[in-house]
Amino acid sequence: MKFQLAVNMERIDDSLDMNDVARHTLEMVQIAEDGGFDIVWSAEHHALEMTIAPNPFQLLTWWSTETSRIRLGTAVAAAAYWHPINLAGEAAFTDLVSGGRLEFGIGSGAYQREFDRMKPGLKQSDAWRYMQEMLPAVRALWQGDYEHDGEYWQFPTSTSVPKPVQSEVPVWVAARSPITYDYAMRQKCHVNCWPFTRSFEEAELYKKHLDEAIAKADNGWNPRFALMRHACVYDNEVDRENAMNSIRRLLSQFENLYRNLGDVKNGFPASIPLEQLEGREQYDPAMLEVNLMFGSPERVIEKLKKFVQDHNRDRYSSHGYEHMEKVYDNAMTICTKLGDDIPLNILRWVTIVSWLHDVADHKYDKNGESRKYVQYFLQEHIPEYAKEIMTCIDCISFSREKKKGRKYYEKLLSPEFVQVRNIVSDADKLEALGVAGLERCEAYTRNVAYENKAFVTDEQVFLSVLLHCKEKLFILSSEYMRTVPGHEMAIALDAEMKEWLERK
Q1: pTM, whole model, 2 decimals?
Q2: What is the span of the domain harbouring residue 8?
Q3: Percentage of residues of the chain with pLDDT beyond 70
Q4: Of 45, 192, 360, 367, which has the fewest beta carbons less than 10 angstroms from its beta carbon?
């Protein structure tokens, strides 16, 4: 999971100085980059103070001069307000000046009020047709000379000037209805969607649309999927009240525009009283804290952990979220015991390999889909190290180590990744040892039997655990631990296991 920031210049009234608004927006972008966020998104809206973004590419170009790493995306360019040649050139220029950081997001547009002014006579509900004609035209213009004779635009041979720096600009489509998801998958685009404050069931519905569209397209495309959700962290009641008042005010203005219910004066939408709105329970403070990443730092962390747990809910405890968390903790303990000689880059790789080492475990990843996901993730975010990290993950396997020899991996990895592998491998093996390891082995045996609709007695379970000890656990501390701290910790856990088995 990667975090992204959708940020807009906005004012609630004209008492706010526009220079201050601009300065605050840029600070948010820079904080997101410093915090390791993946993408920052700019919207397109017209004549509205709550979203000051008449040209998203201008904003992205501005942000590109004040950042160096974060990706820059349009969420979204409203297709009906543009000409294909104009849109292709603006987007390509942004990619050029940002050093190839553009994420091109395109959509239909949100508010009927804007269509009434920017594209009179066009219903918002019909604007998807413009988006579907626009996207292939823009892509063709990025490639070279192209002539277009469509329903909404016609032009003789032309091309995009300049061309994008990226050989393949990532394209995102704003999707809500199944027809748009189908189109996005046929065009091999990523997907943005906006559940906002609604319950997570709506987010799950959008994911269902995506999965169905992927299956229907059947073209091998593996899209990224982004959900826009409001988030706020606070640690006292005053800040909580301020956050709730702000989000409720914003949402009441949004409902005005989205449902075309109220007036707009000098660019400021009137707030619609929430009691007048259907489904207003979604704006209740208690519901906001349940549905969204709203709350104290501790509460937000709990929510994030639950997300990861839910993602791995089909895994046995031996290879689920708790296991990965414990392996990471063990690895950090080993690093601490090794002392100050551990470089920061080693700690970085240890963290990544610890959390990813079992995501694509063969016992669960029968068709290799999880492995493909891990490879895609690494290639996208750490391309220069993706191959070696994946090799390192593969080298964590005890069965492979036992089959190929205890030091086979030293020929496959650079010296620094040999160290990473040894730390994470020891951390993983420690999880298999001790009383907790034996109890995990018991649970795994019963789970497998249950899955296969087989009955096992307590004696059969114990014999299976004992066999596992003889084939693996009893030889780990003496033959397969590669760090001094790992070896010392394993010896202590060995004693625990022997005592447990004697009691049994």
Answers
A1: 0.64
A2: 4-239+297-302
A3: 90
A4: 367
Q: Total domain count for the chain?
A: 2
Q: Are 42 and 74 spatial neighbours (Cβ–Cβ below 8 Å)?
A: yes
pLDDT of residue 317: 54
Question: Within this chain, do residues 213 and 325 fall inside the same structural domain, yes or no?
Answer: no
Query: Do residue 338 and residue 224 come from a single domain?
Result: no
Helix axes 386-394, 369-381, angle to 10 degrees: 140
Tell me the H-state helices in 108-236: 112-118, 128-143, 178-186, 200-217
Q: Which residues pair with 72 in a beta bridge?
A: 40, 102
Whether 454 and 324 map to the same domain: the answer is yes
Residue 235 reports pLDDT greater than 70: yes
* Contact assessment for residue 423 and residue 484, using Cβ atoms and an 8 Å cutoff: no
* Whether residue 318 sits in one domain with residue 233: no
- Give the distance, in angstroms, between the CA of residue 480 and the centroid of all CA atoms in the same chain: 35
**Dihedral sign from CA coordinates of 36, 39, 44, 45:** negative
Measured CA to CA, the distance from residue 364 to residue 251 in angstroms comes to 42
Residues 350 and 223 in one domain: no
Residue 250, in any domain of the structure: no
Task: Report residue 297's pLDDT band, with 50, 70 and 90 as the boundaries.
Answer: confident
State the burial class of residue 361 (Cβ atoms within 10 Å of its Cβ: 0-12, 13-18, 19+): middle
Of 280, 302, 324, the last residue of a domain is 302
Would residue 68 be called left, alpha or beta, if left means φ above 0 and alpha means ψ between -120 and 50 degrees? Answer: alpha
Q: What CATH number is associated with residue 442?
A: 1.10.3210.50
- Selection from 162, 164, 182, 160 nearest residue 173 by Cα: 182
Examine the domain organization and report whether 82 and 228 are in the same domain.
Answer: yes
Bridge partners, 269 (sequence order): 264
Residue 366: pLDDT over 70: no
Domain shared by 222 and 337, yes or no: no
Is 282 within a domain? no
Which is more confidently placed, 291 or 222? Answer: 222
| Contact by Cβ (8 Å): 231, 294 | yes
Say how far apart CA 391 and CA 372 lie, in whole Å: 14
Q: What is the pLDDT of residues 30-82, one digit of tens each?
A: 999 988 899 999 999 999 999 999 999 999 999 999 999 999 999 999 999 99
Last residue of a domain, one of 258, 284, 302: 302
Instruction: Give 362 or 151, the one with higher predicted confidence.
Output: 151
In a domain, 85, yes or no: yes
Using DSSP, how many helices (H) and how many strands (E) does the chain show?
20, 14
